[in-house]
Description:
There is one protein chain. The longest helix has 25 residues, at about 65-90. Strands 4-3-5-2-1-6-10-11-9 form a nine-stranded mixed β-sheet, with helices on both faces. It has seven helices and eleven strands. It is globular and about 50 Å long. The protein has a single domain (about 5-234), classed as 3-Layer(aba) Sandwich (Carbamate kinase). β1, α1 (about 25-40) and β2 form a beta-alpha-beta unit. About 35% of the residues lie in helices and about 20% in strands. It starts with 6 loop residues before the first strand and ends with a strand. It binds uridine-5'-diphosphate (UDP). Uridine-5'-diphosphate binds near residues 71, 74 and 142. Pfam families: AA_kinase. Catalyzes the reversible phosphorylation of UMP to UDP. It catalyses: UMP + ATP = UDP + ADP.
Amino acid sequence: MALKYKxxxxxxxxxxxxxxxxxxIDFDTVLKICEPVKKCVxxxxxxxxxxxxxxxxxxxxxGKMDRTRADHMGMLATVINALGVADGxxxxxxxxxxxxxxAMQEVAEPYIxxxxxxxxxxxxxxxFGCGTGNPFFSTDTGAxxxxxxxxxxxxxxxxxxxxxxxxxxxxNPDAVKFDKLTYSDVLNKNLGVMDMTAAxxxxxxxxxxxxxxxxxxxxxxxxxxxxxxxxxxx
Length: 234
Ligand code: UDP
């Protein structure tokens, strides 16, 4: 199978790691997601991963807490997930490095762009924790930033829905799925596929963004080989 994208930035939401438990990490689910990642690496793709943290904590849902502190907690949650995903990938025999935007050198490498690129060139998977490293941002924006820095060919956003719809498919059975969208559509129609900061950044940097369901983890391979899956924003 030929690759459509050589260097990919895979964004895994925290939720996608929780499986049926619905929160925290379900390691069997993690392993199921890691298997197609290994297939992609074996086919010659260079894979960097940004993980979310919503299965543990989201700063914006923290109620009365100070937002900056709540976001620090959210970023730490992404590190828990990054370590879980790294462990899953290693159990499948891959070489993996975790890099965090907030230094915690006893646990992971600090984020260094050139080093991350070097790892990718050597066939290692790099898992990025802490999003952008700053409060008030999301891991979608972290994914967009890292994709730009490492010059990824695409951002693959693996989520719980199989693409972008004109209305919520859970509440509207007639909701229509888009195959393709422009960033201007996403920004003007406020489609909620990613936050506005990430969308405007990707538009400015010309980074394609493919949203698809992780319920079937093989979709990761389909996305990388250019099979029709999800919704492509570019
Ligand atoms: N976060 C942050 N800065 C970033 C990325 C993430 O402060 O650059 C915090 C924020 O509190 C966020 C939490 O980490 O709610 C988890 O990330 P996110 O909500 O993007 O995770 P996902 O929804 O993808 O699981």
